[in-house]
Amino acid sequence: MLMDHWPLLGLRLNTPRLELRLPSEDELAQLADLAADGVHEPDRMPFIVPWTDLPPAERARSVVQHHWLRRGNWAPDNWALNLAVFTDGRVVGLQEITARDFAVLRQVSTASWLGVRHQRQGIGTEMRAAILHLAFAGLGAADALSGAFEDNPSSFAVSEKLGYEPDGVAQWSIRGRRTTMRRLRLARASWEIHQRVPTTITGLLPCLPLFGLTGQAED
């Protein structure tokens, strides 16, 4: 079975409303269709790489290619896990967690997007809480990093609920304009205080070597 060689296919994160897991090929197509339908208002750009400026068909294709690229480039000291987010069996968005030299640094970064029709329903908070549970409870992370441009209040609202604290700023050229990103950091102690979303992890133990880890994990 393919899962014997790529155990991440069996990894599941479950919250009261959501399931996060790698998508099948048909589900990846649904995720691409969701991106083609829109991710944010056209007058702003929340991403460093402006992939949502592509025409809908190219935007959908970029989702598929990016997903394949992340799998193909995976290494235990440099990995990126792109989990599709499901509610009632429907694909609603994508939650990413990445790390370099995780076994030493114990530090992850997260990013995500939701289809426009699934926004403002609390899903963004719940899916980030789920991936943070994987990071801290499952993988033993010490810190989780995030960030958003100053015109993205919804992202900051999610981060505030989950206990993130300011971690400086960075300047980027976005659509030809100087744009300020506010960096955020969540320490393990703060996560323990603010965690509110019940999350279960299944299928993690056989995945640990892919994350550069050995030993026991929550399962």
Automatic annotation (TrEMBL):
Residues 18-186 form the N-acetyltransferase domain. Keywords: Transferase. Pfam families: Acetyltransf_3. GO terms for cellular component: cytoplasm. PROSITE patterns: GNAT. Signal peptide: none annotated. GO terms for molecular function: protein N-terminal-serine acetyltransferase activity; protein-N-terminal-alanine acetyltransferase activity. This is Protein N-acetyltransferase, RimJ/RimL family. It comes from Actinacidiphila paucisporea. The lineage of its organism: Bacteria, Bacillati, Actinomycetota, Actinomycetes, Kitasatosporales.
